[in-house]
Amino acid sequence: MKNDERVRPFSEVESVAALNSSHLAVALHQPEGENIFLSTADGGKSWTPTHVSNTFAGTLLVRNGEYWAFGIEYLGREHNPGGGYSAPVALHSPDARNWTHGVRATTEFQACTTQGCILPYGVIEVLYGESERIFSLPQNLPTTSKWAMVGTKVCIVDDGLECGSAIASNSPQPAPEDATSAMFQVAYNERYLDGCLECHLGVMTPDPAFAGRTFSLPGVVAAFTQRRDGTVEDVSVNGLPSKHLADEISGQISGWLLEPAHDGTATTPMRREVKLHVSCFAGFPGHAETANCSVRPAEGGSNVGPSVMVMK
User: Fold this and answer.
1) Rg (CA), the chain
2) One domain for residues 204 and 300
3) Which residue spans within 99-193 are E strands per DSSP?
4) Are both 127 and 94 inside the same structural domain?
5) What is the pTM of this model?
6) What is the total count of domains within the chain?
7) Contact at 8 Å (CB) between 267 and 246?
């Protein structure tokens, strides 16, 4: 499919899902653009691309014998080719070729599973079925991509396992008075480096010195020593104008866990680098609490960075 001109621009693999050993689908994303679905009905011998216009639905799941895709839909482009606005979208299909819109979500969501999607402020929204269902969670629970709900209980994996009650609601609960920027983000265990076991960088508070500014820095480099047991020490972050953010990133990287490196049969320390893209959002007007900074793996090329044996 890499030689198919319909597929070539869509270079990023977002999700893979399988109905069975013969029927599989892949969601591919065009950088800074839309996505397409590749599907096969013969176990991968042949593939068919399907483009759903004005859609970036990168999360692909299988539930009750159907493919489900979640993401955003770009609206108003026919009137304004350079803009428009986005709205959350749920799509489902029996074959990943003929897609039908599902229930319209209340607001943009993250961390979708076969049970539902997470919204800000401790809310789970279920979009499977004829109408949406809302569950309110304790607002002191973390929001991560690792969660599950059984009956009236929900458990979330962060640094540990935290559980609480899931209460059926008619509408999403409002933001608490002490809402923080962390409630607007979901922590993902992204692939920052080969060999990462637990490596994520959660939402961060902006530097007060840069309050009210939105900016994006793609050239940040973090270096650290990977100990023999896969834990991390001696973290340094370069390419940021803010010591505050550099310290926050260093602190989070210090908690990473990687597969131990080996020199023959013995484990060995390594000095490693990771390329990062740091973005800071000034917040919505009148809501300073929505300001936040996020970090993701830098785009383009391998993000493994140099690894140097450190003999101690």
Assistant:
1) 21
2) yes
3) 100-101, 117-119, 123-126, 133-136, 147-150, 153-157, 161-165, 167-169
4) no
5) 0.64
6) 3
7) no
* Cα atoms found within 13 Å of the Cα of residue 192, Cβ hemisphere only: 26
288: its two tokens: 């300073």
Task: Output the pLDDT for position 294.
Answer: 81
Q: What is the pLDDT of residue 68?
A: 96
Residue 162 has which token pair? 């935290």
Domain that holds residue 238: 181-309
Question: How long, in residues, is the chain?
Answer: 312
pLDDT in tens, 122-168: 888 999 988 889 999 888 777 777 889 998 899 987 767 889 999 99
Please name the residues in contact with 128: beta carbons below 8 A apart, sequence gap of 6 or more.
63, 64, 68, 102, 116
Q: 184 pLDDT band (50/70/90 cuts)?
A: low
CA contacts within 13 A on the Cβ side of 161: 5
Distance of alpha carbon 44 from alpha carbon 25, whole angstroms = 9
